[in-house]
Amino acid sequence: MSRKPIIAGNWKMNKTAAEAREFIDAVKNSIPSNELVDTVVGSPALFLEGMKKGVKDTELQVAAQNCYWEDFGAFTGETSPAALEALGVDYVIIGHSERRDYFHETDEEINKKAHAIFKHNMTPILCCGESLETYEAGKTAEWIEGQITADLKGLSAEQVSNLVIAYEPIWAIGTGKSADANIADEICGVVRATVEKLYGKEVAEAVRIQYGGSVKPENVAEYMAKENVDGALVGGASLQADSFLALLDFVK
Questions:
Q1: Mean of the pLDDT values across residues 24-36?
Q2: By CB distance 3.0 to 4.6 Å, which of 14, 62, 147, 178 could disulfide with 214?
């Protein structure tokens, strides 16, 4: 099965609203057709409304970096999935290692978020990944299978076919280190095998799996050439317009 590539930038807690507008203006007319690749920018929640207005009638799509699982209520500081849907947000990133590590999010919470995102007609970009200790102990496959199994609990086969899973080894995020393309392909293959175990071959062949962790314009094509790697979730290299656009050169 041919899966459409997906390149998603994750700005994390960077940029002001003015800087976000400048970025969108700089890239929006240079994005390849979404028949070839889905191109996504993950913005801080503060900028999402302006981002959606800025990308109107372009090929660029917008992701929130997180959301809560309840639609409304006494949850100070959280972002409602219903509110994100109303803005027209396309994707929501959940389960990022920074959310898991710094804010102690659990697989149970991430699973609730996945259900809420689908309920509101958006697509989760669901992150998984292991620590350096787990990797060096040779327990990566076991760890990833456990995360994916818990995070997908109760989702339908159709939902899983349409979501995006991002494999991000924690030891390769913001460190300058990266899993080489062969390692990335191997572990993305573990993700796909886990989905097949849970949902069958057809779903496993449909689900798109990204690699994330020090992806740059210089190495993105090497990752994208691998069988099980369908895209990239990119941090630092997505912050500047020229670098972000260079990540898309592999489709030419």
A1: 95
A2: 178
